[in-house]
Structures are given as structure tokens and as C-alpha cells.
């Protein structure tokens, strides 16, 4: 019924599999709602973005469904065609919030005729009804009738019988079902006759007394009946197909006469008490919130979830690669760590647990973009009561469980055995490791699901998850031991699931027989100081006790219980979020009301339409565009054959022309437009010839004189309307046009596009405070800023009502009057819209021309051409010419079979011969029509371009509050968090020293993860705008790359400065002098900038946010493990040293740690360049030495111990800075190279 059988087994959309077309998605949206069991169905703007044929199909399907199921359907439409209009039973007309007509569809035109407004021939009913109550309706008013304003129409409606009958139905205390039937005699029903006896039947009542067994027109199954007639039904209105209904109940004296006057064909409105309807029709399902029980819902949703996941091969490939790459990396990084009595080796084993659980948590972060994308579907379906939130949530959990278990299994097997963890005592330690890893994966997935359900958008979700992961890492017990956590943060330590996971694995491993060697048997206690004073403990137990870990095995069970508790808590919170929270786009009232002002007795028509022709001060290059025998084919890779989209299309457009391209969906009109514009098509597959002023078209030159109105999302969202136009003008003219002239040109553009009242609005308001009509005019204005000679528009009136379309056409006519060419594709246009064009090219399916020529007044020349072809029917009076032309060539709404081959008729017509002669003249007119286009390079100078792009990017960042200022707020919170955790940590103990040193590591990781993830959505948003601007050759890609870089710099500087100030001041590090502080900040800024630009690079490589987020996880995971904190440099296998030296984190950590802890121990007051060796461990040997010492490690200098343990080199700081600068430059250069490669690839 919905026309989806052909694609019933095709996925709705997948990056690696063919998705549905836009038309098929519309069909699916309707079918999805019809699959529900509802009594009332509401469809908002069902024909939004659709052509008439598809709208007709959808409404026909919905109508059949309504008749069969006996349900009510309310549909709002924008300017429906006559065929679509005739499918409805009743219509409601609104104007500025007032109902001006509500009644039978057949009575709409007669009703307005009674008011003096008559629909002319060849004007669509939808067009007439949309305009009749507006200022445009004046042209429909007949002589002798008074003009009506809004109040007049409202008063006329409220005094009509139609309105009175509606009030009767609504105000009646007894509820009735109203229904309408239509038939001819014999009707097949009998009516009660009036009785003048004592038991008098109301004279206005005409009750169906019986039904004829022989049948009749009212008893037949017909789409004209909204319900079957039954005995006892009461007729309340009667009329003929050509006359309005006469309402019996509100005109009591005319009851019998109305019935007697019935013609052969009759329309009836009947009513039936609703109690009878309830007993017969209402099923138990309408008394329940949900149709299915929870278990059945869950099974269906689980099946859907598994199908979606399994069919999303890209998702599976990414997750598999992510797990395998990082598991083998970690396995070989910690390959066969020794389990002997050595503190450093035992720390490495602990590092295995930390990295394993951290990576398993981070793996789920890559699912965040997909979950945010799925949320809109969930909102739609759950709001329609398709399922319960709990059923949906548990289907997501169980559906992802096999893949989570597969990840955990692969990770456990690879990492456990490659690193050489214990396999003694029957291998139960392995299963403990596996269980903890599984629970960590499930908790990570639950955390991501919860954040995706509460965050308003992807940017906020990315920032939130970065902060949460940072807190989890910080209190995991690896970077800050339990005894070093401030008392006011101990609660965070004890509730941290990652801490409990690491603790469980540490207890599990160090209580195994692999670490059963007694401390008294250790030959060198210096290697394991934990054994000092614990001769009877095993080395594993001593390590646990010294680190203040729990030592009993029962704490593993407690850890498992905590992880299960977190899983339950996150699942519960997610359930409530899914049930209660709805993050819908914010809507604002439009700040201006369109200028339709009515007053007593006078009608002031629209300000925009009343103005005279407008001008543009900048004169374009005169351009005559002609296309000769144009063809275009595409390669269908699945069958290895080509499919012809356009077939030998010819035509032309001269300065001042407005050329319309008509055709049904699939006729190739958009492809023809794109071929002419040189946009969105593979130029190598275009056949034929396109000439500009008689010269062959070169796209590089043609792009300077052409404008293409792109999709609405392709404009920078954080510019105002005026700023967007000013940027376009400045990039086109630069300093060649004085500032005053540029300003005047911008004003003219805003005036001609009717945007003066919207010029201060942000483009981000499109769809909110900026209407779609205004958005289309904004696109035109931005392109006009480039002073084009020719303007291309793809279906500019799509989804616009009659008035908005009229305003848009008026703007386009003003543009054409300035000597510019306008070429636009149109869905079936109204008579008024078609009349605005000077020429039209009509295409049939297969991309063949059936007409190219003048339009005439109201399309008369088109109508006369087709009606002159033998066998072609005349254009019906209720059908506009554009629709008539589409209908007769076999692409119509109802009859989709052409009576003749109209492409052949055109080729042999006199019109085609005249066109051929003109095309030949144009082909040989070099030098007479206009100049040959030459490559002028960029419109503005290199400096002017750079300034404009820089200004644009700065405005984008300044106004993008969620991203820019959200990042600064995150820096404040992160600084306070880090500072409070490391507040006044004593560096004179080994534990304190390591804790302070690791604080630098965690701060770098925190900034790296949050910035790399949050920048990816920004690149995706900017890419749409950049692609449009690059196609018009407005600026150099190099300047765009530099401006993007410079836009990030000030905010990165500010955010890292705020973080450094708060953190260092509270932690008392690198604040001895201003030089240390600013050097620390500068290096942190360089590191953050490098990682941010790396995120941009991955966004450019990955294209999809899911791929980029996964790549971030992989690389950050590798860098965290090889930064020298988890695994000291001297313990990294030489095979992995290449990763160490290409790791920006390790350069930053070496420098930052050196700045924070460095003290010149060789100065005369201390070791004196080795001359005072006893000073190394004896403070009394050098009392003037102020370098801090470790009191629990033989008074050794803190810097000496830390330098040895972390392989630090203070002298390497300048080289580290240079290396970070190289990373910054390298990542930007690679991003530029990828953008350039993609651009070159697109041109091919």
C-alpha cells in the first residue's frame, strides 16, 4: 500500500550499504505510523518536500487505511494539487490562527463563491484556497462583492450553516459519530416518515429505518463512504455533488423538503450515538497505553537491535579493529613481564590492569555519536507508544551483550597470555580477570548510554564524558594511592568502579602462587622495599600491604558486587532519563510578522510585492548559457553497467531570462541543473557540449560567474544574515570595490532578497526563528554577494506555501531584471509561479525533452503546444498548466501512462526546429554574446581573503558557546578537581613524589581526551560550509586551514592558562617564579593544541564521527600507555620505542615534570659537580643545599630519584618544545593534504 515492497529488505541507511531514497523514507515514515493501532492519526505537512505524485500515493494509502480500519486521519498540507485535494472528506482552512472554513471538501469552492471569490480556470484548488483569504485573494473577487478582511471572513464563517452544525455537534451533551456517504438511486435504504400522531417524530429527523436486501449505492463498498449505513442512523445534512450540503437539524422547517429535493446523486451526512460505536468498534487495545505486553515488546526490540548491529558492518569492523589493535599493542607492550621480586616489574603488572580496564571503558566512548543519532528515532517511536522505555533499554543492553562479551573475551585471551599473568592454581585467576573485564565493559557501555540520554547534544555529551572519564581515571587508585587521596575526596575513591576493578585484579594476581616467595628469601631487598620489616609475608602480600590495598580474597567479591551495583544504578538512571527527558530543538517565535496588514475597508497588500523593481549596483558579466545534446550517465557498480539519466538535452538561457526545469521525480531535472552548474556531478561522465557566450565552458572559470543555492546546512551557522552576505561580497571584490560601495551593495542584496528585517539573525536560527522561505532567500543573498551572472536553484519553492513562493519568485524576478540568468528546477508549479518564468524545459522519465520554449501568460503557450498534438486531451479547468503537462507525458499523479511518445513529438515539431536554429546560432556566436571567461583567480587579494576567513572563523568560535565557552568551563572544573586532589601533597616521600609526578600525567591525559573528542563535531559542522565555499572558489584552502588553526589558538591558550593557574597554584608546583609558570603553561598549551589538531586530522580522515571517535580512542590509548608514566621508558620494549618517540604526550610530560621538580643538584651548594658526593644522601654535608629530598629513601634528592625512575631530562625541554611544534605543524599539514586530496578527488 505504501509502495515499499521493492525495498522491503533494504536497510534504511548505512554508510556501507545502499540507503533508501528520500521519497522512500517519506513512505516509510508514514508506513511506520500506520503500523500502530491508533484511533486517530495526525500527519504534519505530509507533502513537505514531496512532489504531487508521491503525495498522491501517500494520501491514497492513508485514505484506504482509514476506510478499512475505521480510524480518523488529520493531515496538514502545503498547497496540495487538485488530485490530492479530492482525496479528502473534509478540510480545515486556517489563517493567522483562525479557522475560516471547516466543512466538506466538495463545499469549499461553492462556499467561497457565495462570498464572491471564484477560482479561475487552470488555477489549482490548493493554490486558490491558500490565497483567497490573503492579500492575493483580491484577484479572485468578483464585481459586485465587498472585499473581506480577516474579520470579515471569520464573521462569514461563523454565520454559516456549516459552522452552526459544527457547534451543534460539539455542544450536544450526547456524543455522536458523524459520517458522510455519497451515492445514486437506488440508495438501498429506507427512511422513517414523519408521523403527525401522538408519538411525533421530530420533523427534522430523517432516520434510516431499514436496509434493502437487494442492495443499493449506499450499501456498496466505496471510498466515498466514511462508514457503513445502519438502521437507526440519522441524516443531518443532504445535498447534491454540485451543491452545498443543507443542514436539516439547524433548519428544522426544511427537513422534508430537503429530502424531497434530492437529485439522482446525493450526499448525506449522518450521525450515530457513540455508545453504539463503542460497543461495536472499540477494542481493549485502545484502553491500554501499550498494545503489547513487555515481554513481547522486548523480543521484537531485541530482534531489531541485533539486526541493526549485525547489518552495520562498519560498526563491527571498527569495534573489532579497535579491540584487536589495542589488545595486541598492550600485550606486546607488557610482553612477558617478570613476576619476580622487583618493585618496578610488579608496578608494570599493576599497569596492565589499569590500562586494560581503562581501555575497555574508553572503547564504548566511540559509540556515543551513534547513540546520539538514534535518540531522535527513539523519541518519535516512544512518544507514539510503540514500546515502553524499559523494553527499549533492556533490548539495547541485551542486544549489545554478545558484542561486549566478544570484546572482553578477545581482550582477556590476548592480553592475559601475552603479558604472562599467572596461570597457576587451576587457572581460576584467569576467570577472575575475565569477569572483571566483562563487568568493566558493561559499566562503560552503561555510562555512555546514560550520558547519551541526558546530554542535550553531541558537543555537551563529549565534554561530559571526557570529564567523567577523567574523574574515573583520577580516583582509580593507580595515579593517586588511597592513602594520598584527600579525606574530602575519599568518597569518590570508594565509589569509583574502575578503582574496584583494579583492586580486584591486583588482589587476584598478587595473592597467587606466582608471588608466593617469602620476603626473607629475597636476596636484594632494595629491589622490593615493600618487604622491609615484613620477613614472613610473601612478596605479593607485602606489595599489597605497603600500597594499602586490601589483601583478602573476599574483597574480590565485594568489587564484583560494586561493579554490579554500578551497572544496576546506571541502568536505572538511564531508564528514568529515557522515560522523562526529551531534548527537542529549541524553538523561538519569529521576531517579525510578515507584512500583511488589513484595515477597515482598505486592503494594504504585501509591502514586498507592492514595491517597484529593485536594482543591484554591481553589473555582472553578460552570460548566455547554451547546452547542446547534453547527456549524463552513472555507473551501477552492482551490475557493472551504466544507466542513462539525461538523453540529448538542449536549451539555452540569455541575460534576463528565468528558465524553469520541470519534470517528475526521476526525470533528471536536478541532474540537468547540476550538470549545467558543474556541481555535485562527475564532470567526466557529462556528454554533449555546454557553451558560455559561445565558448566551451571551463568549470574553473565558470565558477566565478555562477551561483548555486545549496542546502540550508551548507552555510556557516554562527554568522548573521548580513555578515554572511558581507563575507561573500568581500571575498569576491576585496579592495577592488571601496568599502562604501561594498556596503551599499550589501544593502541592495538584502533589499532584493527581502531580508532587511532578518539581517541580524544568526544562520543557526534556520528552522527556528528563521523560516524555510527566509532560509532560501538567505542562500540567494549569499550567492548574490559574489555578483554572479547566472543563478542555479534546485526546487526553491519546495515546502513553501503560496505566499512564500510568491515572495521568492518576486525576488528572483528582480534578480533577472538586473541582467542575470536564473535557472531553477521546480516541482509541479502553480500557475502564478510558472508565469514568472520566461522559458521552461520539461523532461520526462529517462531524461528526454518533451518541451523547451516560452511559457506565455499563465502557461498558455505550453498548454496550446500540447493540446495541438493529436490525441492529447484538453487541460481541465481545475488543473494548472504545469501539472497538465506532467500528466499528459505519463508522469502524472493518477494516470501514469503517456498516450503518445511526447519526446518524439517534440523532436519532429516546428518548435524543436526553431530551437535548433537558435542553438546553432548560439554555437557560432563567439565574441558577439559576451566576453570569453578567463580564470581570474580569487576575487580578493591573498591578504583580504585571509582577513575575511579569519574574521569568519573567529565569529564562529566566539558565538559557538556550547563548544568554546563550554571548554573553558570544563577547564575551570578540571583545574579545581585536580588542584583539590593534589592540594599540598608532600613531595618528601616516595609516594608523595610519585603522586605529584603522576598528577602531571593525568592532567595531560584529561586535556587530550576532552579536546580531541570535542573538536570532531565542529569539523563535521564546518565541513558542510567549507564544501560549498570551496566549490565556488571563494578562497584558498591553505588560508582556510590557517584560519581554522588560528581560531582554535586563543581559546586553547585561555583554557590551558586557566587550568594551569588553578591547578599549579593549588598543587604548589611550578610557581617558584613566573618563568617556570609560563613555560609550564606554554608547553601544556602546545601539547593540547597538538592533540586538538590531531582530532581534526582524524575527523578529516574518518569523515564519519563514529570512525573519528574510534580512532581517537585507539591512538590516545597507545599514547597513554607509552607516555612513560604507566610504563617507564627503560621498561618499554625496544620494538615500541618508535611509538614512544612519536608520542606527543611523552614530550609534554618530560618537560612539565622537569619544570615542576627540577632542582640543580650539581650547583656548588649541593653536589658541586660531584666534588661533594656525600651530599647525595647526607643533608648535613651540604646544609646550604635547598633541593628537596626523600626522607623515606635514604634522603636522596627528589629530582635525582625522579629523573632516574621516569627517565627525565631537563636539558631536553627546548627539544621537547620543538617536537611539539613539529607535531602541531605536521597535523595541520596532514589535515590540509587530506582536504586537498578529497577536493581533487571530488573534481574527478
Short description:
The chain is of the alpha+beta class and 1244 residues long.
User: Helix segment count?
Assistant: 42
- As a percent range, the share of strand residues is 5-15%
Largest sheet: 6 strands, antiparallel
Gyration radius, in Å: 38 Å
| Separation of the first and last Cα atoms | 41 Å
The count of DSSP E runs of length 2 or more, i.e. the number of strands, is 24
Stretches with pLDDT under 50, minimum 5 residues: 199-204, 254-262, 586-611
Instruction: Characterize the overall form.
Output: globular
Q: What does the model show?
A:
This protein is of the alpha+beta class and 1244 residues long. It contains 42 helices and 24 strands. Strands 5, 6, 7, 8, 9 and 10 form a six-stranded antiparallel beta sheet that branches. Strand 19, helix 27 (802-817) and strand 20 (821-826) form a beta-alpha-beta unit. The longest helix has 42 residues, at 990-1031. The model is unreliable at 199-204, 254-262 and 586-611 (pLDDT under 50).
SSE order and pairing:
Elements lengths: L21 H13 L5 E4 L8 H18 L2 E4 L6 H4 L4 E6 L2 E7 L3 H7 L10 H7 L18 H9 L2 H11 L4 E9 L4 E3 L14 E6 L22 E6 L6 E2 L7 H6 L4 E9 H8 L12 H18 L1 H21 L9 H20 L5 H16 L5 H31 L8 H27 L3 H17 L15 H6 L1 H14 L28 H8 L7 H27 L16 E3 L2 E3 L2 H4 L14 E12 L4 E13 L4 E5 L6 H9 L8 E7 L2 E2 L2 H4 L3 E4 L11 H13 L5 H14 L19 H13 L5 E5 L7 H16 L3 E6 L4 H5 L3 E6 L3 E7 L5 H8 L13 H11 L10 H6 L2 H14 L18 H18 L1 H21 L8 H42 L5 H31 L6 H29 L2 H17 L15 H5 L2 H14 L31 E2 L5 E2 H9 L6 H31 L1
Parallel strand pairs: 1-2, 15-20, 15-21, 18-19, 19-20
Antiparallel strand pairs: 3-4, 5-10, 6-7, 7-8, 8-9, 8-10, 11-12, 13-14, 13-16, 16-17, 21-22, 23-24
Helix pairs in contact: 1-2, 10-14, 11-14, 11-38, 12-14, 12-15, 12-18, 12-38, 13-15, 14-15, 15-16, 15-18, 15-20, 16-34, 16-35, 18-19, 18-20, 24-25, 24-26, 29-30, 33-36, 34-35, 34-36, 35-37, 35-38, 35-40, 36-37, 36-42, 37-38, 37-40, 37-42, 40-42
